[in-house]
Amino acid sequence: MQIFTSCFAQIRKLPDNIVPVSIALKTPAWFQGIRYPALAPHGTFFAVWKRNHDDAEYLRRFNQEVLAPLDAQAAAAELQSLSGGKDIVLLCYEKPSDFCHRHRVAEWFTERGISVSEWNAFDQNGILWEQDSLF
């Protein structure tokens, strides 16, 4: 099983052989896929970050409160079981270039020997897809 990360805006471009998995604090109502809240940020420090955008404090708390209690090998095995062994993409809201917990999740897995990369969608002309503005 290969693990990717991406944003909900790309879900319609995912190939059928990649299983979408939400790791968002709040998953969109329309999303009917797998949810894996163990890798989601907690509302307490996320709300603080929304007010002050202190990335360092957010990451400190995410590492301490979300990732530290987890075992990466066990989480990967559970994700593999949930996906039926298929490749997965861990989803949240932010576009690839924005600050986002999924990038830290990818680093965390990679630091523990589990390869994770950002999934990129290319159009028919080989041009990298970019997320449309949400505003």
List the helices and strands and how they pair.
Elements: E1 3-7, E2 18-22, E3 34-35, H1 43-52, H2 55-67, H3 72-82, E4 87-92, H4 101-111, E5 116-118
Parallel strand pairs: 1-4, 1-5, 2-3, 2-4
Helix pairs in contact: 1-2, 2-4
Give me a quick take on this structure.
With 135 residues, this protein is an alpha/beta fold. 33% of the residues lie in helices and 16% in strands.
Describe this structure in words.
- The structure is a single chain.
- The chain has about 140 residues and is of the alpha/beta class.
- It has one domain (about 5-120).
- It contains four helices and five strands.
- It has helices at about 45-50, 55-65, 70-80, 100-110, and strands at about 5, 20, 35, 85-90, 115-120.
- A five-stranded parallel β-sheet has the order 3-2-4-1-5, with helices on one face.
- The longest helix has 13 residues, at about 55-65.
- The radius of gyration is 15 Å and the shape is globular.
- Residues about 120-135 have low confidence and may be disordered.
Strand content: 15-25%
The number of distinct β-strands equals 5
Which class best fits the helix and strand makeup? alpha/beta
Number of helices: 4
Task: For the structure shown, list the relevant keywords.
135 residues; alpha/beta; five-stranded parallel sheet; 4 helices; 5 strands
